[in-house]
UniProtKB/TrEMBL annotation, chain A:
Name by which UniProt lists this protein: DNA replication complex GINS protein SLD5
Keywords: Chromosome, DNA replication, Nucleus
Residues in DNA replication complex GINS protein SLD5 C-terminal domain copies: 166-224
UniProt organism field: Myripristis murdjan
Localization terms from the record: Chromosome; Nucleus
Function comment: Required for initiation of chromosomal DNA replication. Core component of CDC45-MCM-GINS (CMG) helicase, the molecular machine that unwinds template DNA during replication, and around which the replisome is built.
Main localization of the protein described in the UniProt heading: nucleus
Top-level taxon in the UniProt lineage: Eukaryota
GO biological process, one term: DNA-templated DNA replication
Cellular component annotations (GO), alphabetically ordered: GINS complex
Automatic annotation (TrEMBL), chain B:
Organism, scientific name: Myripristis murdjan
Superkingdom as given in the UniProt entry: Eukaryota
Name under which the protein is recorded: GINS complex subunit 2
Coarse class of the protein's main subcellular location: nucleus
Domain GINS subunit, first and last residues per copy: 116-218
UniProt cross-references to InterPro entries, sorted A to Z: GINS_A, GINS_bundle-like_dom_sf, GINS_Psf2, PSF2_N
Keywords: DNA replication, Nucleus
An example Gene Ontology CC term for this record: GINS complex
Length: 224, 237
């Protein structure tokens, strides 16, 4: 694919911060994958901040270029429409992450704390700040409204116990992108036996998230 | 068979079916927008995160390519998602559905319906779909959404639009009936895995909330029944 902005001859790929070379179209596809995975997985997934940053960069560049085009050009409206569509996906993606952080904040922060040095962080720096602030505000609020009126021995609440954990045993729908052999399916009841299935490329399945969670983060399957 | 009941959920209603093709009753109880504090502390697992709106599926369908015949000329457009054009009056060109519909609304093009959007072809598909027990391959992963979009906005460019609408609705209804039957047997046989080839996203989406929530509820009930299993504890607040 040629350059997005060859419209007016400038190049924006040189400062691409992604390691592998990716066309803008692939970048958008990556964002959409991340969006759907995040939407359907019961837990918070690893943040894709590099994809988010690159998309933002593309949008800013495009915006700047559109400023230079003379008014009334038909192309501008087409570009604007496309940008609006991309912005929608981007904000829906970030919003669903924030929703999950709000829902699981103590567990998210706990996971972040126990993360080994060098492991990629689940949260972007902004999300981390948000989660911490959310925790602090919730605690303050709870204290002000309820806890301080309680007898002294009942004045503490363990957030980790008070807030539900993500339910990894939820079922999810998925499409296979890279063939996987011998995925172990755990039985639903004691009478049944466990068995293995092969996930063929392009096939679609309904199964528990826990079984395939590693495949989601490796990108071998796509939640749908 | 599922019983249609005016919104009230009785014990054996598996899927509330409304007349509308998209909203198969599963989106009634959307919990989006519940204030964070209440839902963090409520006992139920809020399903809001794991849902998708039918309009979002339609959004994805709008990325499909469709042929148009423009009545204007324009150089190539270099979009972020790929190049389009050049546009010349009378010469067919491929564009995404969202752009096709926009140009159509501004009366700048004629839309060429996709090949499968044809009465004979759809009749064949309908017969096959009725004959087979399994789901047959559909002509497009977004056949329902595309039919709806194109027929609503460009029905004057599509020959026999009404017949096509009915045919696609028939195919959809047959498939949704199959989907309900298989969901029913999935639940009654307590399966842990199902293969869903040839199902489209919109079809999955009509049962998603209800099916997944039911499975989770049953899982909760079951794991609490089995003594010694601590699987259920994580869910028991």
């Amino acid at each position: 694919m040629s350059d997005v902005l060859s419209d007016d001859g400038s190049d924006i790929h040189q400062d691409d911060s992604l390691e592998e070379v990716m066309t803008p179209a692939e970048l958008i596809a990556k964002l959409e994958e991340a969006w759907l995975n995040e939407k359907f997985s019961p837990e918070l997934l690893e943040n894709k901040s590099e994809v988010v940053e690159c998309v933002m960069e593309q949008l800013t560049h495009m915006e700047a270029n559109l400023q230079r085009v003379k008014k009334g050009d038909v192309k501008v409206s087409v570009h604007r429409m496309e940008m609006d569509r991309i912005r929608f996906v981007l904000s829906s993606y970030l919003r669903s992450r924030l929703q999950k952080i709000e829902k699981f904040f103590p567990h998210v922060l706990e996971k972040e704390k126990s993360r080994a040095e060098g492991d990629p962080s689940l949260l972007s720096p902004e999300e981390y700040a948000f989660a911490k602030e959310y925790l602090a505000n919730t605690e303050t609020y709870l204290k002000a409204v309820a806890l301080k009126h309680m007898p002294p021995n009942l004045q503490s609440v363990d957030m980790l116990k008070a807030v539900p954990e993500p339910c990894l045993d939820s079922f999810v729908f998925l499409r296979v992108k890279e063939r996987q052999d011998n995925i172990l399916v755990e039985p639903e009841t004691d009478e049944q036996r466990e068995y293995v299935v092969d996930l063929e490329e392009g096939s679609q399945h309904l199964m528990r998230y826990r079984t395939i969670a590693p495949l989601v983060s490796s990108g071998a399957v796509q939640l749908i | 068979m599922p019983i249609v009941h005016n919104g009230a959920v009785t014990s054996c209603v598996f899927f509330a079916v409304s007349g509308n093709s998209y909203s198969a009753g599963t989106f009634i109880s959307s919990t989006v927008g519940v204030p964070a504090l209440t839902h963090s502390f409520c006992k139920q697992n809020n399903p809001a995160v794991q849902t998708m709106d039918p309009s979002e599926v339609e959004f994805l369908a709008e990325k499909e390519m469709v042929k148009i015949i423009p009545n204007f000329s324009l150089d190539k457009i270099y979009l972020i998602g790929g190049d389009l054009g050049p546009f010349n009056p009378g010469l067919p060109v491929d564009v995404p559905v969202w752009l096709a519909l926009n140009l159509k609304q501004r009366q700048k093009c004629r839309i060429v319906p996709p090949e499968w959007m044809d009465v004979e072809k759809l009749e064949e598909i309908r017969e096959l779909e009725r004959k087979e027990d399994a789901f047959t391959p559909v002509p497009s992963p977004y056949y329902m959404e595309l039919t709806k979009l194109l027929l609503n906005h460009a029905s004057d460019n599509i020959p026999k639009a009404d017949e096509i609408r009915t045919l696609v609705k028939d195919i959809w209804d047959t498939r949704i009936a199959k989907l309900r039957l298989s969901a029913d047997s999935f639940i009654s046989q307590q399966e842990a895995h199902a293969k869903l080839d040839n199902l489209t996203l919109m079809e999955i989406n009509t049962t998603r909330t209800f099916l997944l929530d039911s499975l989770n509820c049953m899982y909760k009930l079951r794991s609490n029944l089995q003594p010694g299993s601590n699987k259920g504890k994580a869910l028991d607040y």
